[in-house]
Specification:
The chain has 318 residues and is an all-alpha fold. It is built from twelve helices and two strands; from the N terminus they run αααββααααααααα. The protein has two domains: 2-86, no CATH class; 93-272 and 292-311, Orthogonal Bundle (MetI-like fold). Strand 1 (79-80) and strand 2 form a beta hairpin. The termini are close together. The mean pLDDT is 83. It is 74% helix and 1% strand.
């Protein structure tokens, strides 16, 4: 197992390098950090020279990323011109804000999706299964921004008209007390949960049906085991194997910044600065968030691979 983990980590290093190099070159080709200075030269020559030196703009675009790699290897991810802070500081503060949404949303969506998947698989073609299927398709079809805007309209407009109070904050993070934090975080968490549950429950239903139709499940039933024990002890454990991969990807994406949801609710996470960084050619900020997200994807996929052996003892890492 240890040798397998080391091989996987070593294999991901060139992939991470290629991804970051491609992002750096792509952003350099499509944006110009000096655009705002062209109209004011020579009055702003000092600022012009400062930005040129910061991003090595006098170096060839194809060679330029290597200077950033050298600094990143020492822990220096650069400085964001838009936010006026070191990128490492932004990743810590805003990454924590994103985690405050991602962790409860992931836990909630995973639990709900698993329960719905088990119910649909064990009540195949029932009225409840058809109803959950229809709702899942609606949830999958609705874009994230539509779900967020619907929740905002429901609780910020309609609820206030009906009950003359506003139960949740719809913009920003308010953390003067736990109650205020919960009020401001509820709607973005619900948005992320609804979008995730819709897809995860359908994927889980398919995985459960495949397992429940397997020969060893029929053998277990023939031996006299109760349906509940067969489903929860034998069926669920094997159905979790494909789900673990999906959850690992979902969780890493949530932690690396839910761009649309955070933008809609003005949540101070990693999503809004990533969008602003792309538009303003803030290369250091963009690359910092990309390397953070890439690291999370690699880490959680590695954890998923390890969990395969825990869920299914037949899997060996030779």
């Amino acid at each position: 197992m240890f040798a397998y983990v080391i091989r996987r980590v070593l294999a991901t290093i060139p992939l991470l390098f290629i991804a970051l190099y491609s992002v750096h070159v792509g952003v350099s080709f499509t944006t110009d950090p000096l655009a705002e200075f062209y109209q004011c030269l020579p009055r702003c020559q000092q600022g012009y020279d400062l930005i040129s030196d910061q991003y090595d703009l006098d170096t060839n675009i194809w060679v330029r990323p290597f200077a950033w790699f050298g600094d990143a290897a020492t822990g220096d991810l650069g400085r964001s011109n838009e936010l006026g802070q070191p990128v490492s500081t932004i990743l810590k503060t805003r990454g924590w804000n994103t985690a405050q949404l991602a962790i409860p949303a992931f836990a909630l969506s995973t639990g709900v999706a698993l329960m719905l998947a088990i119910y649909s698989a064990t009540h195949k073609y029932s009225a409840g299964d058809y109803a959950l299927t229809s709702l899942s398709f609606v949830g999958i079809a609705l874009p994230t921004f539509v779900v967020g805007l619907l929740l905002q309209t429901t609780f910020a407009v309609w609820w206030q008209d009906w009950f003359h109070n506003k139960p949740f904050w719809t913009q920003g993070k308010h953390a003067d007390s736990f109650g205020q934090f919960l009020s401001s975080a509820t709607l973005p968490i619900l948005t992320l949960t609804i979008v995730s549950v819709a897809a995860d429950s359908r994927f889980g239903r398919t995985a459960m049906l495949e397992v429940l139709n397997a020969d060893y499940i029929r053998t277990a039933r023939a031996k006299g085991l109760s349906r509940r024990r067969v489903v929860w002890r034998h069926g669920l454990r094997n159905a979790l194997i494909p789900l673990v991969t999906l959850w690992a990807l979902n969780f890493s994406i949530l932690l690396s910044g839910s761009v649309i949801t955070e933008s809609i609710f003005s949540w101070p996470g990693l999503g809004p600065p990533f969008i602003d960084g792309l538009g303003e050619a803030d290369i250091d900020l963009v690359l910092g968030i990309v390397i953070f997200g890439s690291f999370l994807v690699i880490t959680f996929n590695l954890i998923a691979d390890v969990l395969y052996g825990v869920l299914d003892p037949r899997i060996r890492y030779d």
